Amino acid sequence: MHRLIGPGGPAFELLLWLPLVVASAWPVAGLWERRVEGRHQREIAVLQRHRQETNLKLLVLQAQIEPHFLFNTLASLRALLREDSTRAEAMVDALVQHLRAVLHVARTDSGASTLSDQLAICASYLEIMANRMEGRLTYGIDVPRPLLETPFPPLMLLTLVENAVKHGIEPRIGAGRICIEAERIVRTTDIAVAVRVIDNGVGLSRASGHGLGLRNVREQLALRYGDRAALSLVSSPEKGTTACIEIPLERFGLI
Amino acid sequence: MNPTALVAEDEAPQRRELCRMLVSRWPELQIVAECPDGSSAIAALHTHRPTVAFLDIRMAGATGLEVARQACNMAHVVFTTAYEQHAIEAFEFDAVDYLLKPVTVERLDRTLQRLRTRLSEAPKDIGTVLEAIQQGFRSTRSADIPWITASLGNTIKLIATEDVLYFRADEGCTWVVTRLKKAIIRTPLKELLPGLNADVFWQIHRSVIVRVSAIRTVRRNELGRLEVTLHDSEETLPVSQAFQWRFRRM
Questions:
Q1: Distance from C-alpha of B42 to C-alpha of B37, rounded to nearest angstrom
Q2: What is the domain-level CATH number for residue A122?
């Protein structure tokens, strides 16, 4: 010990340097720590993104072919086979198209879907329902051509159309109509596409059990667009319901 | 006298198909009414007094279950359903007759066989089963209402319960307040309360239910009364004596 602090010894020199070395290493250590922290944050961000994607997939999966829809469609087909084979054939085609589109969404990455894809899914569904309900349901789709290739998340529109049939037209005595319309709208901070499903059915009531499908749509919109997308429903008893999805456009460079 | 039947089914092709199958599998059975909805089925039931009623569960006007409540003292009821799992389990348990759609000839034959042997007996009383099934339908609906229906003039708007900051009763109506808007509903607080998640919404005053996570501070005002301030809103809400215990631990 004594020898170490003796003047002139190399060990002494080293000791003199030590605080300096440590002091100069501090910022380096801090930098290193910050780098680790940065890496952690990036990892957390990646994990969060994964979680968000998983949640989205789950939500899309939940919006699946309803057994009720499938069995009733088959029951109608059974009837049509005997009565009118041409109509039966058209219905099989529509059902195949519908199943393919919906099952395809469930199995693949749903990021690339367009409004035109989603309208096709709704059209095959409405075609089947119109055949099943025979004159009690008519439908129209009126969307400006330039909007057709707008990216649009999968199966949300179908949920709104299914609701319009189930809670609007089916409970209505007599015939009803469903229209799908879309327009480009200018909002205060950006530009959006608004897609509306309009029915002239019985209107909303407390007991109509709209809950799950709509909640699913809302959650998907929130996960994908935060508060820049919106789902709204307006209804007049015995006159009908309009459901509207608004999605920001300009993030896709489609202003 | 030949047995008679009523067929209620809201989808025309399916209705015709069931009638066709009945005619071919039970030629003596006379179909006296083919109804496209529940209301006309109830009317036809009283006019024709059929021996058997084939009732689809989901129909406009009145559901098959509602029609059956009126029918079960006069007619033997057979339900038809594509997929009402909950009802099917109840039917199985209580030996209520039902047909799964699409209806197959084998299954129809079995059901018709059973019906033939029972024609001389009084129709089975299925009131209790029906009540239980309808209870089941109701309970799946009312739990944690995700949407509030609010009237704005002549129209109704759905407000997601998740967006609601608070409900405030005011002269016979209830204000529903979200971050972005206010709307009036007619449902009184005490009817709303059972449908709300008790961990998410607290009643803090006779006239106020508030989202717990929306509360920013709890303080005493100049008059010494307890009140809460909110995130995302300028409002302060009163806390009444009866509900102050909620904040003891805060």
A1: 9
A2: 3.30.565.10
Residue of B nearest to A209 (CA): B141
* Chosen domain end from A62, A79, A95: A62
Residues 223-242 of B with CB under 8 A from A: none
Residues 6+ apart with CB under 8 A from B87: B57, B65, B79, B81, B98, B133, B136
Write down the pTM of the prediction.
Answer: 0.76
Please check whether residue B200 touches A, CB under 8 A: no
Instruction: Say whether B156 and A210 touch across the interface (CB within 8 A).
Output: no
Instruction: Answer yes or no: do A169 and A245 share one domain.
Output: yes
CA distance A254 to A252: 5
* Facing residue for B147 by CB, picked from A136, A203, A211: A211
CATH number of B94's domain: 3.40.50.2300
Same-domain pairing of A55 and A141: no
Looking at the fold, whether A42 and A84 belong to one and the same domain comes out as no
Dist. CA A5–CA B21, nearest whole Å: 111
**B162 contacts in chain A (CB < 8 Å):** 218
Report the alpha-carbon distance of residue A74 to residue B56 in Å, rounded. Answer: 16
Domain boundary among B126, B141, B156: B141
Q: What is the domain range of residue B216?
A: 147-247
Contact call for residues A252 and A228 (beta carbons, < 8 A) = no
Give yes or no for B147 touching A (CB within 8 A): yes
| Cβ <8 Å between B60 and A215 | no
How many structural domains comprise chain A? 2
Rg from Cα positions in chain A = 30
Q: Taking the alpha carbons of B141, B144, B146, B150 in that order, is the dihedral positive or negative?
A: positive
Instruction: Decide if B24 contacts A158 (C-beta within 8 A).
Output: no
What tokens appear for B128 in the block? 């209790």
What is the ipTM for the molecules in this complex? Answer: 0.74
Going residue by residue through chain B (250 aa), what tens digit of pLDDT does each one get?
899 999 999 999 999 999 999 999 999 999 999 999 999 999 999 999 999 999 999 898 888 999 998 886 789 999 999 988 778 887 887 778 899 999 999 999 999 999 999 888 888 888 888 888 877 766 554 445 567 777 766 777 778 888 899 999 998 889 999 887 888 888 889 888 877 888 889 999 999 999 999 999 998 888 888 999 998 888 899 999 888 888 875 5
Nearest to A60 by CA among A122, A104, A97, A117: A104
CATH number at residue B239: 2.40.50.1020
Pick the closest to residue B168 from B235, B223, B216 (CA basis): B235
Within 13 Å and on the Cβ side, how many CA atoms surround A241?
27
Contact A213, A64 (CB under 8 A): no
B207 CB-near residues (< 8 Å, 6+ apart): B168, B169, B170, B189
